[in-house]
Amino acid sequence: MIFIVGIMTLTIVGLIGLGVYLELFPERRIAAPHRVRNWLFGNFSVFAVALVALLAVAAQEVMAETTTTIARGEISLGLGLAIIGAGLPTGLAAIGAALALGPVGSAALAVVAEKPEMFGRTLIYLGLAEGIAIYGLVMSILLLGKI
Fold first, then answer.
1. Judging by beta carbons within 10 Å of its beta carbon (0-12, 13-18, 19+), is residue 105 exposed, middle or buried?
2. Which end of the chain, N or C, is less surrounded by CB atoms within 10 Å?
């Protein structure tokens, strides 16, 4: 299982490395777009296969686990995956809220600079965008209650 996680980590590091390379050498970006496209497709394919293999191995270990008394403070693989699953809604909702708040906040500042009486309305729009993150937090709290 450590080997599979290592492969997934290398694909992510490779993707970050490609982004840094394209940022440092923008003139080479147009030179060979088919190579970059093929490399990204191969990188994604390796990551997807490793993810499926990791899920299969983790599911097999969780299902093979016998029901024994867990020592205080010890976390099993199943409990660890459940806690990660409970934390995902908050993280993904926060990313979604950040993507929403960027354009809404900049537009709100532009509107308030032109018409200061629109300040209250722009706060409502910002609150609606921030509500996405709050919904994710509520889902995480509900999931943690089920664990």
1. middle
2. C
Taking 70 as the pLDDT cut, the residues of the chain under it are 1, 27-32, 61-73
Q: From the centroid of its chain, how far is CA 35?
A: 27
Entry pTM: 0.50
The SS3 call for residue 64 is helix
Q: Which of 84, 3, 89 is nearest to 50 (CA)?
A: 3
% helix / strand / coil in the chain, to the nearest 5? 85, 0, 15
In the block, residue with structure tokens 């099993």:
76
CA 8, CA 47: separation in Å to the nearest integer? 5
Give the tokens for residue 124. Answer: 């409502």
Instruction: Please choose, from the candidates 95, 93, 71, 72, the residue with its C-alpha nearest in 3D space to the C-alpha of residue 142.
Output: 93
Q: Say which DSSP state 84 is in.
A: H
Which tokens go with 99? 């993507």
